[in-house]
Design goal:
288 residues; mainly alpha; globular
């Protein structure tokens, strides 16, 4: 596969063109991606399964010690997933740029440090609000706290959306400085917010639909576990078998591994959206 020049990326504003070209890049080089990425994708599947299992088991924990342990496992699994995702992105960029893997992984690590810090900040923000509700206003409703977590996650995602351009630009172009991810290039991403949002929304929608199909057994276990946790929350005894943690972990691992091609395609969609924005900016400079 030849080097993909940035200025020759998809120049069309059509989101379907971006999605189709991203799919061809993945499908036409399947063997290459499997050989280069399988250790990282396997690690992501394991880390995701650990984080998902811990998060799902947390509401049904019967002691404070269990809750704390599961909380730390969830945070560790989530951060490990981010680190391995950075390694995967760096490996992909190394292939696209025909460069060394270490150099590109190092740049990807720097970029992924931003969502890692934001993730930790979100945790602090959530518990600050949640603890205040419990201590001051005696609001201990589980659904209320879940709603707060969802709202924080949505707001964070919307704020990080422009880094879909600035972050990939940093990884793709070696002369771009790290500070530009949340500086000049971040504001460029804001200028093209609509296109980035549509690309993310469409790719996530397709990814979610495929994930629902590929992870159908996991959803059955998840719903049963949540209903059991809700029963425990209201004082009932657990009706789930002792092997449920292993079932959740296995289901999450299989589902995560099955969805790996979907995640890879979503990365390529953002890569080509970045290429489209770069091409349009260069065209404007040329017209001047």
């Amino acid at each position: 596969m030849g080097t993909l020049k940035i200025e020759n990326q998809v120049k069309s504003r059509s989101q379907s063109a971006v999605a189709k070209t991203a799919y061809r890049l993945m499908a036409d080089n399947t063997t290459l991606w499997i050989k280069r990425l399988w250790p990282w994708l396997l690690g992501i599947s394991l880390a995701t399964a650990v984080a998902f299992s811990a998060a799902l088991m947390m509401p049904s924990a019967t002691t404070d010690i269990q809750t704390v342990i599961l909380w730390f496992v969830w945070v560790a699994g989530s951060l490990t997933t981010l680190i391995l995702a950075a390694c995967t992105s760096g490996s992909v960029m190394a292939v696209l740029k025909e460069q060394g893997t270490r150099h590109n992984i190092a740049r990807a690590m720097k970029y992924y440090a931003i969502p890692a810090v934001v993730f930790i900040a979100d945790i602090v923000l959530f518990y600050s609000i949640s603890i205040s509700l419990v201590v001051i206003w005696k609001q201990v409703m589980l659904l209320l706290h879940v709603l707060i977590a969802v709202v924080i996650a949505i707001i964070t995602s919307l704020l990080l959306l422009p880094t879909g351009y600035s972050g990939i630009k940093y990884m793709a172009e070696d002369n771009v400085r790290f500070a530009s991810i949340i500086g000049k290039n971040y504001f460029t991403g804001i200028r093209f917010y609509g296109g980035l949002f549509v690309t993310i929304f469409v790719s996530l929608l397709i990814g979610i639909l495929l994930a629902i199909l590929l992870a159908a057994p996991l959803w059955v276990i998840t719903v049963a576990s949540l209903q059991d946790s809700l029963g425990i929350y209201f004082g009932d005894q657990s009706g789930m078998p002792h092997t449920v943690p292993l079932l959740i972990f296995t289901g999450a691992f299989i589902a995560s591994a099955a969805c790996s091609p979907v995640w890879l395609w979503q990365f390529f969609c953002m890569y080509y959206q970045y290429g489209s924005i770069s091409a349009r900016l260069m065209e404007k400079k040329t017209d001047r």
